[in-house]
C-alpha cells in the first residue's frame, strides 16, 4: 500500500445480543406461560435461549407447576441389564416429535444407587427406593424435578426385597427381613412423609409365619386395604382402624399372579399368559373378568413374550419384548421392547372395555436378553 492510499477502515464489531423472545414480560409471567407447556417439551425449549435454559433447569418452574395445578403424569421406566443389579438405566415415555406414537427416551441420572432387591414407590414428583440387597435399611429419593438422588432417613430394619405401598401420606413396608431373627413386631414399618420418621406397625403374631418374615412379600392397595401375600398365604391390613384379617380362599385367587399386575383407579388388572388375556378383578363377585376388546389386536404380538402392565394417568400401558434372531441362525441374542397404550372405560353394566390407541416399538436399539423391569410407574411433575 502506497503512502497516498488511506488504510482500510476497520469495522467495529458490535456486541452480539442474545435475542429476547418476550423482553417486556416479568419472570413470573414467563413462568406461568412455560408451566402450561408439557414437561416433555422442556428439553427443546431450554435450547432456545439462556433465560429459558435457566428457568427450565431450575426447581422454580416445577414448584410453580405444582402450586398452579399444571402437573402432568410422566411414566418412568428403569431397566436392569445385569443379574447383579449394578447395571440399570432410566427412561421416560414420551411422544415422538415427528410422528404418532411413543418412545422410551433415556434420562441421564448420575450416581444412581443399586436398585437390586429394592422396593420402589412414587410419591408426587419423587421416587422412593427402599431397602435392597446392598444397604438393606437405606432409603433414597429420586427427585424427578432435577433427576438427582437424595438420601432419606433409614428404616429400623434391614430388608432385602421388601414390599411397599403408599396409603394416605404414609409408606408401608413389609417383609424381606434378614434371616437369623424372628420378631413379628418389626415385620411392618411405616414412613410418615410429613415428619420423615419410621415407626413399627404391630401385627398379630398368629397372622404371620416364619416364612413371611423373611420371604419376599407382595402387596396391593384396593378399597383402602393393603393385601399382603407370600407363597400360598396372606393377610389384609386396614390402616384406618389398624385391623388385621386373614385372606380368604377367593381373595387368594386375586393374589396368585400379581408380580405383573397394576392397579388403575382402584381396579386390579393382570395379564394371564395361558389365555393371552388381560383381566380385572371384580371385588364384589370375587372373580376375574376379561377386559373386553382389550387384547384383540395384540394376541399375535405377546405370545411367548414377557409382559408388564402399568398405570399411566388412568390409561394402561403394556410393555412386552420381542426376540431378535441371531445372524447365524443359532437362536436369539437380543430383544426389542414394544409398548401399547390402552384406554379403559366402564360400561353401565359394570364391564370394563379396553381400546388399543397405539402400539409399536419404543426403543430404537435392541437390548440384552437378560433384562428386567426394576420400576414402571407414573410420577407427577
From TrEMBL:
Annotated signal sequence is none
- The segment(s) forming the F-box domain are 19-65
- Name the CDD domains for this protein: F-box_AtAFR-like (cd22152)
Show the PROSITE patterns listed in the entry. Answer: FBOX (PS50181)
* Superkingdom of source: Eukaryota
Task: Write down what this protein is called.
Answer: F-box domain-containing protein
Amino acid at each position: 500500500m502506497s503512502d497516498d492510499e488511506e488504510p482500510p477502515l476497520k469495522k467495529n464489531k458490535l456486541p452480539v445480543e442474545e435475542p429476547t423472545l418476550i423482553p417486556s414480560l416479568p419472570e413470573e409471567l414467563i413462568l406461568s406461560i412455560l408451566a402450561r407447556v408439557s414437561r416433555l417439551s422442556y428439553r427443546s425449549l431450554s435450547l432456545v435461549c439462556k433465560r429459558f435454559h435457566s428457568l427450565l433447569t431450575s426447581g422454580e418452574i416445577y414448584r410453580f407447576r405444582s402450586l398452579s395445578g399444571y402437573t402432568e403424569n410422566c411414566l418412568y421406566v428403569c431397566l436392569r441389564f445385569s443379574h447383579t443389579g449394578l447395571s440399570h438405566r432410566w427412561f421416560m415415555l414420551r411422544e415422538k416429535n415427528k410422528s404418532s406414537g411413543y418412545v422410551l427416551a433415556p434420562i441421564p441420572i448420575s450416581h444412581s444407587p443399586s436398585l437390586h432387591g429394592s422396593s420402589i414407590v412414587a410419591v408426587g414428583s419423587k421416587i422412593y427406593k427402599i431397602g435392597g440387597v446392598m444397604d438393606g435399611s437405606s432409603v433414597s429419593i429420586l427427585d424427578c424435578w432435577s433427576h438427582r438422588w437424595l438420601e432419606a432417613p433409614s428404616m429400623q430394619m434391614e430388608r432385602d426385597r421388601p414390599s411397599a405401598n403408599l396409603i394416605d401420606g404414609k409408606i408401608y413396608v413389609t417383609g424381606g427381613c434378614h434371616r437369623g431373627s424372628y420378631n413379628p413386631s418389626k415385620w411392618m414399618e411405616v414412613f410418615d412423609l410429613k415428619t420423615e420418621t419410621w415407626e413399627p406397625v404391630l401385627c398379630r403374631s398368629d397372622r404371620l409365619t416364619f416364612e413371611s418374615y423373611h420371604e419376599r412379600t407382595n402387596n396391593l392397595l384396593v378399597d383402602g386395604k393393603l393385601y399382603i401375600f407370600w407363597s400360598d398365604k396372606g393377610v389384609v391390613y386396614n390402616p384406618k382402624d389398624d385391623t388385621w384379617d386373614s385372606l380368604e380362599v377367593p381373595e387368594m385367587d386375586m393374589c396368585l399372579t400379581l408380580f405383573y399386575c397394576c392397579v388403575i383407579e382402584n381396579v386390579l388388572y393382570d395379564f394371564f399368559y395361558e389365555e393371552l388375556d388381560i383381566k380385572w378383578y371384580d371385588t364384589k363377585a370375587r372373580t376375574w373378568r376379561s377386559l373386553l376388546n382389550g387384547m384383540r389386536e395384540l394376541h399375535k404380538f405377546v405370545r411367548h413374550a414377557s409382559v408388564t402392565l402399568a398405570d399411566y394417568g388412568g390409561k394402561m400401558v403394556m410393555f412386552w419384548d420381542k426376540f431378535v434372531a441371531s445372524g447365524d441362525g443359532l437362536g436369539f441374542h437380543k430383544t426389542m421392547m414394544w409398548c401399547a397404550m390402552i384406554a379403559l372405560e366402564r360400561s353401565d353394566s359394570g364391564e370394563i372395555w379396553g381400546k388399543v390407541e397405539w402400539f409399536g416399538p419404543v426403543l430404537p436399539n435392541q437390548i440384552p436378553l437378560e433384562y428386567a423391569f426394576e420400576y414402571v410407574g407414573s410420577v407427577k411433575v
